[in-house]
Amino acid sequence: MATGNYRVKTDKDWNSIYYRFKQGKQFDFELSTGIETPKGRWSSSKQEILSTAEMDYKAANIKLKEFNTYILKEFQSSKLDSQIITSRWLKEKISSFFNRETYNPEIDNKVFFAHYITKFIEEARNKKNKRGTTISSRTIQHYRTTLIKIQEFESYEGKKLKLTDIDIKFHGKFVLFLEEQQHLNPNTIGGYIDNIKLFCRTADQKDYNVSKDYKLSDFYSPTNETNDVYLTEEEIDKIYNHKFEQDYLTNARDWLIIGVWTGLRVSDLLKLRLEDIKDGLIYNVNKKTDYPAIIPVHHHVEEILNRLSGLPRKISEQKFNKYIKEACKLAGITEKVEGAKIVPVEVVGINEKITKIHRKKKGIYPKHELVSSHTCRRSFATNHYGKLDTLTIMKITGHVTESQFLAYIKITPKEHAEKLRAHWVNQRKAA
Question: What are the residue boundaries of the Tyr recombinase domain, all occurrences included (predicted)?
Fold first, then answer.
């Protein structure tokens, strides 16, 4: 006698329900139904999903019972027609039944947004971008952070969000939550909104029941001009020529100088090897974008390599960020400038738990306090802008679009005016 029963094979946050159909030693097949159950909510003895607020478990249980009855009837009909029962036969019956009933827990309007994001992240690990490379671990981590922010917002609101809830009203509340409760800056919030729009767009493309508000101009990604500083060439010379009494500051200074004259991200800079430098050229494959770049060795960098007979001692990013502030202070980079500094704040997390963390806060600070590992690449891009063609700089920094690059550099209106004045002076001399 043929029998069918359900089970789950995993113990994740969400788990697929499998249907096993067998008859003695004649056949034994098991396939996923496409229905998922939250962790710990499946009862093998009752063959049903237990009560849960995570999904419409009653509707799912009805479908599971109906499907078992349907399969047994189809099996009897197939026997009369002398059909051979195979795994493909079962797969077709599963597809036919659920598609015919237009039931899919992911397309159903009761699907939860956090659940969808979790599945999106799992699938993203195996996807490739437009350049044919896999999505970077950094991007995946940003997706995960966005998921955490959604979960913290749900906890704050006391409500689990469905895909249909991601509308203009949600946008306003979510942005306000991140501003007032999480103390995040507009650019960071904008990154989360960008991801949310991506999640909604991909769900929409797959015919999920999604609010269309994500397409509206009012569903915007907040942004503002970054306050990160850069070091001018004069300031770089001051730091380069300063004699430090402490060896650890000299070592950090040397890495800083290499950074401002190579434009490398800190993740690439501090992992630079001597074998990456050949015939006066630095060969680097950008860790974030997987983009190859070849950078000539600046005379400051050449002097450091010759003095040390190699690269400076290895240093952690945390210590690098700490020591270069101290080095810049001793070198006289103390002018008061506008910027954003990391300060302790209290934020509201999951279950409204208050957590003390650090966030950037705008203000007027001594410049050395604002110098960080990001200063290296930004200084390289800004100091060479207008002296080299933009495409050449972008090839070294790894920026993909010119608009992205122009938003990154830090040229003030006064500096633009000075560049134009210098151009006119050179024109007059040449005349």
Answer: 226-421
d(CA 228, CA 309): 33
b/e burial code for range 51-61 (CB count within 10 A of at least 16 → b): eeebbebeebb
Q: Is the pLDDT of residue 198 over 90?
A: yes
Q: What is the pLDDT of residues 324-333, one digit of tens each?
A: 999 999 999 9
Q: Are residues 52 and 132 in the same domain?
A: no
At 138, which CATH number? 1.10.150
Match 């074998």 to its residue by tokens: 275
The interaxial angle of helices 317-330 and 247-260, nearest 10 deg, is 100
CB atoms near residue 428 (< 10 Å): 8
Same domain, yes or no, for 137 and 206?
yes
Cα–Cα distance for residue pair 340/361, rounded to 1 Å: 5
Return the pLDDT at 350: 56
Residue with tokens 């122009």: 406
Same structural domain, 297 and 390 = yes
Task: Identify the domain containing residue 32 by its residue range.
Answer: 3-100
- Which domain-ending residue is among 188, 215, 242? 215
Q: Are residues 272 and 203 part of one domain?
A: no
Identify whether the C-beta of residue 376 lies closer than 8 Å to the C-beta of residue 344. no
Q: How high is the pLDDT of residue 100?
A: 41
What sections of 40-82 are H helices per DSSP?
57-80
Tell whether 47 and 83 lie within a shared domain: yes
Question: What integer pLDDT is reported at residue 147 of this predicted model?
Answer: 92
Confidence band for 85, pLDDT divided at 50, 70 and 90: confident
Its pTM stands at: 0.54
| Run of H or E including 237 | helix 233-241
How is residue 202 written in tokens?
A: 């991909």
- Whether residue 155 is contained in a domain is answered as yes
Provide the sign of the torsion angle of the four alpha carbons 72, 77, 78, 79, taken in this order.
Answer: positive
Last residue of a domain, one of 100, 124, 144: 100
- Statement: residue 157 has pLDDT above 50: yes
Q: What DSSP line would sit under 99-137, residue for residue? A: HHTT--TTTSTT-BHHHHHHHHHHHHTT-B-TTS-BPPH
